[in-house]
Amino acid sequence: MNNEELRDKRREFLKTSALVAGGVMLNGVAFANGGAHSSVDDTIKIALIGCGGRGTGAAFQALSTKQNLKLVAMADAFSDRLESAYKEISEKFGAKVDVPQERRFVGFDAYKKAIALADVVLLATPPGFRPSHFEEAVNQSKHIFMEKPVAVDSPGIRKVLAAAEIAKTKKLNVVVGLQRRYQNNYRDVIKRIQDGAIGDITGGQVYWNSGGVWVKPREASQTEMEYQMRNWYYFNWLCGDHIVEQHVHNIDIANWVKNAYPVSVQGTGSRAWRTGKDYGEIYDNHSVELTYADGSVINSQCRHFEGIDNRVDESFHGTKGRVFLSAGNEGRLYDTKNKLIYNYSSKVNPNPYQTEHDELFAAIAKGEYKFWDAERGAKSCMTAIIGRYATYSGKTIKWDDALKAENSLFPDELSWTAKPKLLPDANGLYPIPTPGQTKVI
Q1: For the whole prediction, is pTM greater than 0.90?
Q2: Where are the alpha helices (H) located in 140-272, listed in sequence order?
Q3: Can you tell me the distance from the alpha carbon of 435 to that of 281, in angstroms, rounded to the nearest whole number?
Q4: Is the alpha carbon torsion for 355, 357, 359, 362 positive or negative?
Q5: In this structure, how many other beta carbons lie within 10 angstroms of the beta carbon of residue 61?
Q6: What's the rounded Cα separation, in Å, for the pair 345 and 359?
Q7: d(CA 318, CA 190)
Q8: What is the pLDDT of residues 393-433, one digit of tens each?
Q9: Do you find a cis peptide bond into 435, omega within 30 degrees of 0?
Q10: Which of 28, 90, 108, 432 lies at a C-alpha separation of 20 to 30 Å from 205?
Q11: C-alpha–C-alpha distance, residues 304 and 358, integer Å
């Protein structure tokens, strides 16, 4: 297929999305008008929703692909964050950035306006907003890159799963930022595992133990809503706790290796080191057991302690051997006598953050439907969420019970003066989950 034929195929692919959004029948299903705009020239138009560090990084990676892309719209709740990202991205990519002031949207509903102007959207706000943003992008028939996690509670996961089914019907490419799925050593070694290299998986361990992340102290002028959104990592309606926001990467590997999701989860956690009011409501350590339908158990551990030995990797045991994996290009298979039988040693292991964008935009440019990550991403996020439910409550939580839970953490109203559901006491301290007392579902 020559370049002109590829361009024609891409134009048809993008026009089809626009027609679907306008209510034209596709595969027997009609959809309401979402006000979508679609490129019909050689340029793929993208919109960035969420202009923090990860959003800026996602825009860098998208604009670094080989395809003819242009950033045409941006949205964020905060104008300062948007303008900072715009400056950084435009300085790097110049003519690939065409976002005049009238296409820089600020506020809680800004995402809808930016989505309408693009062919592909990058969703990178704090994860509590992801279900609504994903649903809107699907309703407007856009191809999507969305960061993990895709939700922070059971109602959010159900919303993502419902939108994922519509995205499949519309043949919208969706990539979720669980980037180990796009990393060569993981792809290579896990294929060997699933081909039987170490037999049936009987157990394993996954880790994300580190010193923790940033803190943004309260400023006197901030409302409670602004403070929580600026300091989003420490509030579950926005973040989901670090077992969900960060450790989901390793939990996703457990599910990938098992080719399944756990039927129940139990565990323990606490606030042992990060105990002050700057740390909101979340725990600083979680240790959980993921039990799968075949009776196998994967142990999951994450913590945010300063001065500790860091560990971020995964290992699994099978009936014929074991495996060790890490994001540092490692992938080793051993037999039952601890003899090395395979070592992934290729030096060609491109940055997976870049690879996920390279592959997404290559498919879109060719007019291909190749990626439907949303369901898989939602179920791995649900696994991590159930881990939080288990550590907060001290109970064994079953998958089916958790998925049905009506326990939305999201505020009843979004405005700068509205009150989130969780509020501090007179000393500025937030209620902390207490196992045996806290009810989660």
Answers
A1: yes
A2: 154-170, 184-194, 224-230, 242-245, 248-258
A3: 14
A4: negative
A5: 22
A6: 23
A7: 13
A8: 999 999 999 999 999 999 999 999 999 999 999 999 999 99
A9: no
A10: 432
A11: 32
